[in-house]
Amino acid sequence: MVLGIETSCDETAAAVIKNGTEIISNVVASQINSHKRFGGVVPELASRHHVEQITIVIEEAMRQAGASFQDLDAIAVTEGPGLVGALLVGVNAAKALSFTHQIPLVGVHHIAGHIYANRLEHEMKFPLLALVVSGGHTELILMKGHAEFEVIGETRDDAAGEAYDKVARTLNLPYPGGPQIDRLAHEGEPNIDLPRAWLEGTYDFSFSGLKSAVINTLHNAAQRGETIKPEDMAASFQQSVVDVLVGKTIEAAKEFEVKEVLVAGGVAANKGLRAALEEAFHKLPDVELSIPPIHLCTDNAAMIAACGTVLFKKGKRSALDLNAYPGLDIENF
């Protein structure tokens, strides 16, 4: 039995997981309404909300699980990456519980947690490829075994989710922008010519140029007195992002001869991306595609406990001097 704690950004979350695969409780306190009026996450505000919510959320997760701290084998907590002030709230809460109840402590990488959200649905098949798409990360990660992470491709500038939010702001859509773009995209036509950064010879990504192209196209049209339908721009933008994500994932899956492709991160909830991946991998019957349900795509503590269980079984223990590491490297954490 592992208690997971997650406070890397704007969700305060706690969960209890059994055997690394069974969700006993999973509690998330969202801050979206607090940050909505600012058009994005305000780090100081996020930290204050975590301080207010962390004890309540942990107590509720334990209550729903019907468990006492004596029932726990370990406490897993996100140590990075993320907003340093937000991370510190979860790390210090986990250390306090670990010290008070003498329970082993395990620090977890946030993106590793997103990948292990898939294990809450079914057992992983190695070697596998993980496509990580979130507000702060876009990566392709090769795994040849549990907790073995090799980054084979990453974004050189904006993450996919970051580009979604910036384009949404340009279109005057409310925060969070990703779901709004996805909704509009299904109402429009991808009839606007936008660039796709293929970065030939690598599995890296780049979305900064695409974001700039959207802004320039809208600005130039306004100067000419022309109107571009937001639905068509959303559809064209999403098509450009999805084409690159799916294309590089398929290419990497073939080269590394993986048995499974996992999708992880908040943007994995995007309906357009999910549909495009399912269609593409239908043509690759030897590779299994795994996309977690939407409630496990966004930040939660069940994924942290799932990953923490694997690390705990492999012998990882964190000392009480564990700190928050906003730039934590997944290959060496």
Task: Please give a structural write-up.
- It is a single chain.
- The longest helix is centred in the last third of the chain and has 26 residues, at 230-255.
- It is globular and about 65 Å long.
- Strand 1 (2-6) and strand 2 (11-18) form a beta hairpin.
- The protein has a 5-stranded mixed beta sheet with strand order 3-2-1-4-5, sandwiched between helices.
- The protein has 333 residues and is α/β, with parallel strands linked by helices.
- The chain is built from 11 helices and 10 strands.
Which characteristics define this entry?
alpha/beta, 333 residues, 2 domains, 5-stranded mixed β-sheet, Nucleotidyltransferase, domain 5, 11 helices, 43% helix
List the helices and strands and how they pair.
Elements: E1 2-6, E2 11-18, E3 22-30, H1 32-36, H2 43-65, E4 74-80, H3 84-101, E5 105-109, H4 110-116, E6 128-133, E7 138-143, E8 150-154, H5 160-170, H6 177-185, H7 208-223, H8 230-255, E9 260-264, H9 271-281, E10 288-290, H10 294-297, H11 302-313
Parallel strand pairs: 1-4, 4-5, 6-9, 9-10
Antiparallel strand pairs: 1-2, 2-3, 6-7, 7-8
Helix pairs in contact: 2-3, 4-11, 5-6, 5-7, 5-8, 6-8, 8-9
Radius of gyration of CA atoms, rounded to a whole number: 20 Å
Tell me the β content.
15-25%
**What is the distance, rounded to the nearest whole angstrom, between the alpha carbons of the first and last residues?**
23 Å
Structural class: alpha/beta
Total number of beta strands: 10
Number of DSSP helices? 11
Q: Low-confidence segments, ≥5 residues, pLDDT <50? A: none
Oligomeric description of these chains: single chain
Largest sheet: 5 strands, mixed
